[in-house]
Amino acid sequence: MMADKSEELIKYMTVQVVQYMETSQEDRRHNRKKAKAAREPWLTRWFGIAPLGITLWWRNRGTVNDAADLESVVSGTGNAGGPAVKEVL
Fold first, then answer.
1. How confident is the model at residue 73 (pLDDT cuts 50, 70, 90)?
2. The whole model's pTM is what?
3. How many CA atoms lie within 13 A of 67 on its CB side?
4. Cα Rg of the chain (Å, integer)
């Protein structure tokens, strides 16, 4: 039983080495770059979606300071603390 598995392992490793030796260095380099570009950023791989949320919060922290500012942004009044001022033509 164990001998079968070791033979399979040796056969697999031999195929992998031969395949590696047959591909040109240029192709290996191209495949490495393509695989690296397809990978997600290390921050996401290590910590999940939390860094994205923190980044979004950090970028927008100065734009809306409190609930009144948020309400004025949503309603479109543009005046956070005071009454809504409409432009008269």
1. low
2. 0.41
3. 0
4. 29
